[in-house]
Structure of Precorrin-6x reductase:
Amino acid sequence: MIFVLAGTTESRAAISALQNAGHRVGASVVTAFGSNLLTRQGVTYINQGRFDEHTLTTALLDNQVQCLVDATHPYAIEISKLAMKVAAALQIPYIRYERQAGDVHEHPLVKHVQNLEEVETLIKPNQRVFSTLGSKSLPVLVPMMKRVGAELIVRVLPCTESIQLCEQIGVDLANIVAMKGPFTEMLNTALFRQYNIDVMLTKESGHSGGFHEKIKSASELDITSLVIRRPELLYPEIADTIEQLIEKVTGVGIEQSNQSSAHQERCQPIT
């Protein structure tokens, strides 16, 4: 089995490509939303939830995983570090599959920061800040904006977990945009105008993450874009295209399944 740590648009494309190549594929996602997407895709073994070292080790051993593909979000560095550690300990081939970062043309309204904490130094009182960083950033962003005296508008996934977190942490319901991306330039422009935005927060999410559309919309409306740079990790093996991924998986000698992806055997559940 090939086990994919999923959670991005690229991960679903990678899973489809691996299935089409005849491989038996299992996957892991954090949310019920992601799990539902993979179920529709014909993945018969899905682990929903967060791994620690013990549970990831158990999952890989119980399901006789031959290769671990890490297709998690480029900013989810803790799970990538854990995956590399466990794969090395079990001597299972590890392949990082990651979208390429989008190049940003120099523009006076586009500013790069190393981390979320650095954002606070660039926000001014009474500014209206539109975050496209997702719900995971809220525990840092919400108190930050209160300290600065800025108003925060957040765009998050339209799922129960995200909305509940927004409510629990004190985001005004009027300032929650619950939508599934990526978004067109036209839609970004409409939202930025609707909420009268001064500053937009984003990550280097690449083409499939709608990065260029966000930057272009903001710049044309004279909105400052604060871009959080990608963290850098040293991966033992990396692929940034589907073709490279299939080639590298083939290169480590993974056996192909005789069953179609729609009729894969169910794998051992994690307990």
